Automatic annotation (TrEMBL):
<dbReference type="GO" id="GO:0005634">
    <property type="term" value="C:nucleus"/>
</dbReference>
<dbReference type="GO" id="GO:0006303">
    <property type="term" value="P:double-strand break repair via nonhomologous end joining"/>
</dbReference>
<dbReference type="InterPro" id="IPR027873">
    <property type="entry name" value="PAXX"/>
</dbReference>
<dbReference type="InterPro" id="IPR054134">
    <property type="entry name" value="PAXX_N"/>
</dbReference>
<protein>
    <submittedName>
        <fullName>Uncharacterized protein</fullName>
    </submittedName>
</protein>
<dbReference type="Pfam" id="PF15384">
    <property type="entry name" value="PAXX"/>
</dbReference>
<dbReference type="GO" id="GO:0070419">
    <property type="term" value="C:nonhomologous end joining complex"/>
</dbReference>
<feature type="region of interest" description="Disordered">
    <location>
        <begin position="143"/>
        <end position="193"/>
    </location>
</feature>
<dbReference type="GO" id="GO:0060090">
    <property type="term" value="F:molecular adaptor activity"/>
</dbReference>
<feature type="compositionally biased region" description="Polar residues">
    <location>
        <begin position="145"/>
        <end position="160"/>
    </location>
</feature>
<dbReference type="GO" id="GO:0035861">
    <property type="term" value="C:site of double-strand break"/>
</dbReference>
Amino acid sequence: MSQFKDIVIDTQSADLQATVKTTFAENSRFLCYTRMEKDSFNISSTNGIDLWRAELSKEDIEGHSPDGNVSNVLIKIREAFKQKNLVLAELGRKMKLTLGRDTQSIDINLFEVTAAIRKTELQAVIFRMADCISGLEASAEKDQQTISKLRQQQGTSKDSGVSGMVDFGNDNKRGKGLQKPISKQPGMSIVNPGCRKRKIAKGVEFD
């Protein structure tokens, strides 16, 4: 693996894509994307029928930086794709792709490819999009399974919490049903079972 390819992979600049609305074609959108092929960093644009491409070497990338820093240029390209700061203009039989805005923008000239290359590139784009969709579906399914497990765990916790509660109401009812009637003992008060009845006071008896 070449050093240039390592830099492209490290900066996550390969396999970028974004759609662009054009001003030169009515109701027309283009797909712009990047792809690393051998020692060439390719930026392409297609409307689904025709295709334009720029094959950039390490030296070409260095030419877009005052200090020749390849990583900085690739990061700018990556951010332009992610933020969809792309402008596509038609210049005869070629396209000019502007990435970014203001003085930090990068202009790349894209040239129309041959029929054979166009066929190969469009096939690669189709399968690449299919892989992206499959990856998103797999990720969504995994997230759904995680959510379902969390919901089941929450439901189990609630059930165990309810079953572990003491039903004091039923215990009280059962306790009331088991109470024995208080039997009256001789000389004891019915109102206060633990106390003896007071005898009625009598006056002094004289013989």
